[in-house]
Structure to design on (1460 residues):
């Protein structure tokens, strides 16, 4: 029986039937007994943790969909309350939740008015309940591992209505504001929201270099010192601003990690791992980096050399076909090697055995940044710093590729290769390729390819299922009112998980082009500005349609990418200085510049190094200044947090002060004592000492009893000064 | 009447008569009426703040000594309790004080057993009470300003017994341990203790470069690459270690500033000052630094040039006298200029108008560091990087000083000045002077000169007083049992305040010599090791005998000096590389090295710059690694603090969990339901929908009622897989 669908329903956005999470459960035919036992355990565990469950058949008969929702609002509230108190205890939030759990009415009011539960909070908490170990009150379900290996994935369902609104709103806006990011945060959690906040901040900051770059392109041309300076300054300001903004956002979103909270000293984490052992394993990063450089670098250098040889030296037969050789080689080797090395990086990070997800992720990102750095920038580095200055010396060696070309190199150095000798165009072309063409290609692979892939895959599957349907009655017969919903869930179950790392990487690599090489082609930022407007929307679309809804993890920063940004900004100061020095031909004053007609040794090494040294230290100095200035500016989030913390403290303190106002000693008052003379008092003290009553300390403090006596004695002493003694001597 | 003194009393350490603070009150003869009125106000204010007061005549008739002690233990306790609670509220201490102020017995137990009051705490609190504004419960006495201008100083009294023990203990010890520093902390407060902790840590760390330097001196000789590398590495390790140690100490001492606590946003500080205005004024630092360089640099360069000319070029009459000219000039101009510039720096810092004492101090230290940097290191820089490489070119220009010498320079370049041409000895001599002789001179000016000055000053004064005594009866007639005590207090009133900045400066400058120039003379660290052993003791002696007892301020770090240390360590990587490159003649491989016989332009600029560039980046890399490693090592203080915080949180959380165990919803249980079929259930749902009871959501979740039904349905679905459908198709 073919499922009948009501076409009207599909048009208006469907509800999610209150489903919090869906578990995609697979049943390998040869393990169905184990899968069945495990399924019983799964439902039991989830039920014990407080979930209502429903099961439905999956797309294929060998998979099930288990639907979960938190069984009661009171469970949800008590869990969220607990999580918030825990946040407060760990210093993550400034104030304790203002409700007492004993009073249900108070709690209802608190959740209704004071701090409502966001969808992200609810989903995060539900996920924690599913995955947390049983002794901590969760169900202990860990997808794909151990006896939960049949649990293929645990994912929340997309909120169609929200997604539709989200995409249509963003497609109409030029500029995303904080409210837009806030909505994402409430739905998808801080981790995804942080990415969009970063993207938005970067986009806003790009406006300046885009405008300035356009002006520089018109007026100054490439390799301009002024552009290089402004560009580096911009990079510093952006980096430091984002560092501040990041903290600000974390605080505004009421959430700031206290990193120590996951430390083994607290006894929270059982795994103990010697830091020395980890350090030893971390040393493996050095050979790893070397391997990356050797493997990827080797491929890129070889392809580079082959390309130059074929395009600029070789003139023999089949040239039109051979031109494609380097591209073919790169397309074959680069992705393969990258995949291999990424896997190696993942394995290495696992061996390093970090205590927290964050630390693991940071270490992994560090490694893949090495890979990305090489694949993204090495080509341009080769052109700028090897091909152009040393080409004349190195190109003759390229005849190793072509035996027949040996004849005209045997004569000596002057090869008939005028093309490549003075070809800074090659550099410009390369930069334009990476900053325009590559961005478009990237967009295509990111959005269009997965979509097409999914379409094809589904068609194939449909045909397969239809074929098997003919031979049996195994196709799930859904209830008509659920049918379209289940169809949608089955589709979502097959989507990939959203990995925010990929998107960050793309943006960081892009920032690298801007920082490192935009002096070659000042329009770079314009291209990126356009690209990033599209990027934000296409990423939103990717999340909404190409990926499962992300689990709303929290985050208080863009994490390890921050270091990568800082590194690229710094390196930018060096490469910009070097590029300007080598390629700037405008002014006659640049005597150290590259003389493209002369020998490469004409470059004044010391002048090049001096300009690099100068630029780098200027950069570091500017960074210190900018950091100082930005730190002094007000940060709305921090201000808010400080105020909150202060109000809380003030309240506590006031309560305490009230309390001890009565207890406080008021000190010896000033009583207008009877008239006394110093002598009389001292006499009295002497008397006390005679009767043996006084220790010297007591005596000392009894000479003047009370403040009024001190005043009297003091005034007497001062009176003596009034007729200065030394005036007598004159 | 001359005061009779009991000589026995003076031998055994005297008690301080329970005096907490002494106010040195001066009465200018022409303002005695104002002084009298102000005195009355003073005693009234102090008394209202809770102090018992006694007044005694000062050394001269125009000064009074006002003795203060906290009137009651209960006042002290309530104040300290309040301060500790405030610390807790501001996150400075992990746990609230464990006593309730309502119960006096509990408070007594708390102060007797749990957390006794240290002397430093008592004195700090008393000082706060004296100086805090009246609306905050203090007496509002601010020495030397406004209508308190007659209050010359407010100082605590030295604890003679402790000082005697302190000095004698330290003079017998090779090595100071944490307990020794702890004692200082309990008496003098964290600020002084931090200095000694730093000194001790530095001393301990010096053992390594002293030993290695000695070995290097024997085996490697000066300008050794290996020594330079090891020295830089050591500097990094020391710097990073101290950064860690500093935090550790602050935490161990139960005290860590939360810098924000003094921020205007909290409303605590009334003064509001635009950060932009401050920023504008901070820009004045640039002309200030320029002025320092111009003035001090000018003097040093001139003296340097004159010295070289006289010693190495000039051969005329009076040479033996003229030799002293540069020293005389330096001795005249340098201190004068330094004093002037220091005053200017103080003034500038005041204009910048910082909100906190700490920020003010940091800004001031930054400025005087510039002055110190020039006076301390410029001479050596000139020798190493100007005199030696460019001497041949520059020295001929020195004949500007001596007209008569013009005859033999008129012939051309080859001056008969073989001496200075190849004289790296000059550099070595200079380094040895600064690292040995200057340290000894410094010791003398720091300890012996003030002592002698005081002796002389007192003798003069005594004679004066005796003279005036003859003409009047104004000399104070002390009670015999107080006489020697008062004499001591009068002496202490005349001592200088202890300024820990001076001592830090000395150590930081010393660290600079080690980091920047010790590659010239590897024995540097040995000299410093000996010097610093003496330094710790002589500083202790200075505090105990040459200065007033310091007010026990708190501190959580060595403050702005940390940046200075970091800067010097970094600069050391550059100077060491340059020095090794320029002066190392050992290996033939150093083709870039300075050829002392040849022209200075033989130095390969690019090689020099490359080696600097390399060294600096190696340094930065090593720093990142060392920082990472040190951060991973355990810090006892932080561990302790974390444990404390965690225990507190755990306790709070447990209490809460107990509370809501009853409230927590247990989730839908698994009841072994009656046998059901999927069809029957779905039928039921359909029925519900017919009666109009169910929204689609309700229906969805009612298909399977309870977990047991989900399990049944799931097992039924799985059972279908057991005979795989697609196996039919084959």
């Amino acid at each position: 029986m073919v499922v009948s669908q009501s076409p009207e329903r599909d048009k208006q956005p469907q509800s999610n039937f209150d489903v919090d999470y869906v578990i995609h459960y697979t049943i390998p035919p040869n393990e169905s007994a184990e899968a069945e036992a495990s399924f019983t355990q799964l439902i039991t565990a989830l039920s014990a943790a407080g979930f209502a469950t429903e099961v439905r058949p999956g797309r294929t008969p060998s998979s099930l969909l288990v639907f979960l929702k938190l069984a009661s609002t009171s469970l949800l509230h008590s869990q969220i309350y607990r999580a918030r108190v825990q946040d407060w205890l760990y210093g993550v939030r400034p104030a304790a939740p203002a409700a007492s759990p004993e009073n249900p009415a108070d709690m209802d009011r608190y959740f209704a008015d004071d701090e409502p539960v966001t969808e992200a909070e609810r989903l995060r908490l539900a996920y924690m309940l599913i995955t947390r170990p049983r002794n901590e009150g969760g169900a202990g379900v860990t997808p794909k591992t151990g006896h939960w290996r049949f649990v293929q994935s645990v994912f929340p369902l997309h909120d169609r209505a929200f997604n539709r609104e989200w995409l249509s709103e963003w497609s109409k806006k030029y500029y995303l504001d904080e409210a837009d990011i806030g909505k994402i945060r409430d739905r998808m959690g801080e981790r995804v929201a942080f990415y969009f906040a970063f993207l938005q901040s970067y986009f806003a900051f790009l406006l300046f270099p885009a405008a300035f770059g356009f002006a520089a392109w018109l007026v100054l041309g490439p390799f301009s010192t002024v552009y290089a300076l402004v560009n580096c300054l911009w990079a510093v300001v952006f980096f430091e601003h984002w560092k501040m903004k990041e903290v600000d956002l974390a605080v505004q979103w009421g959430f700031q990690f206290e990193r120590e909270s996951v430390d083994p000293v607290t006894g929270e984490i059982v795994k103990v791992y010697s830091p020395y052992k980890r350090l030893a394993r971390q040393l493996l990063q050095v050979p790893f980096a070397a391997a990356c450089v050797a493997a990827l670098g080797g491929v890129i250098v070889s392809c580079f050399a082959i390309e130059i040889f074929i395009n600029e030296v070789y003139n023999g037969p089949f040239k039109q076909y051979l031109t494609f050789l380097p591209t073919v080689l790169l397309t074959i080797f680069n992705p393969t090697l990258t995949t291999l090395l990424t896997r190696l990086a993942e394995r290495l990070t696992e061996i390093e055995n970090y205590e927290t997800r964050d630390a693991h992720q940071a270490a992994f990102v560090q490694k893949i940044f090495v890979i990305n750095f090489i694949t993204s920038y090495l080509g341009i580095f080769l052109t700028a710093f090897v091909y152009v200055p040393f080409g004349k010396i190195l190109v003759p060696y390229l005849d190793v590729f072509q035996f027949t070309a040996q004849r005209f190199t045997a004569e000596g150095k002057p090869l008939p290769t005028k093309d490549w000798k003075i070809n800074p165009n090659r550099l410009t072309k390369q930069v334009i390729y990476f900053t325009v063409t590559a961005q478009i290609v990237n967009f295509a692979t990111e959005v269009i390819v997965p979509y097409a892939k999914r379409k094809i895959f589904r068609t194939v599957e449909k045909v397969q299922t239809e074929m098997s349907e003919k031979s049996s009655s195994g196709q799930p017969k859904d209830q008509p009112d659920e049918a379209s919903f289940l169809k949608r869930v089955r589709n979502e179950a097959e989507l990939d998980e959203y990995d925010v790392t990929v998107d960050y990487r793309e943006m960081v690599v892009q920032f690298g082009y801007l920082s490192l090489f935009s002096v070659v082609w000042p329009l770079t930022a314009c291209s990126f500005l356009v690209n990033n407007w599209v990027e934000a929307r296409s990423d939103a679309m990717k999340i909404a349609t190409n990926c499962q809804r992300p689990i709303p993890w929290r985050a208080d920063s863009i994490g390890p990418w921050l270091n990568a940004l800082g590194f690229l900004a710094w390196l930018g100061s060096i490469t910009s200085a070097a590029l300007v020095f080598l390629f700037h031909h405008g002014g006659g004053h640049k005597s150290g510049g590259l003389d493209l007609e002369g020998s490469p040794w004409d470059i004044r090494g010391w002048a090049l190094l001096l300009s690099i040294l100068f630029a780098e230290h200027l950069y570091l100095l500017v960074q210190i200044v900018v950091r100082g200035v930005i730190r002094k500016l007000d940060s709305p989030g921090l201000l808010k947090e400080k105020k909150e913390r202060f109000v809380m403290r003030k309240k506590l303190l006031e309560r305490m002060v009230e309390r001890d106002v009565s207890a406080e000693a008021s000190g010896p008052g000033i009583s207008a004592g009877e008239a006394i003379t110093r002598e009389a008092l001292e006499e009295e003290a002497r008397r006390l000492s005679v009767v043996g009553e006084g220790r010297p300390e007591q005596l000392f403090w009894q000479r003047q009893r009370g403040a009024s006596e001190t005043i009297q004695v003091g005034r007497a002493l001062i009176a003596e000064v009034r007729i200065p003694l030394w005036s007598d001597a004159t």
About this structure: The longest strand of chain A covers residues 63-70.
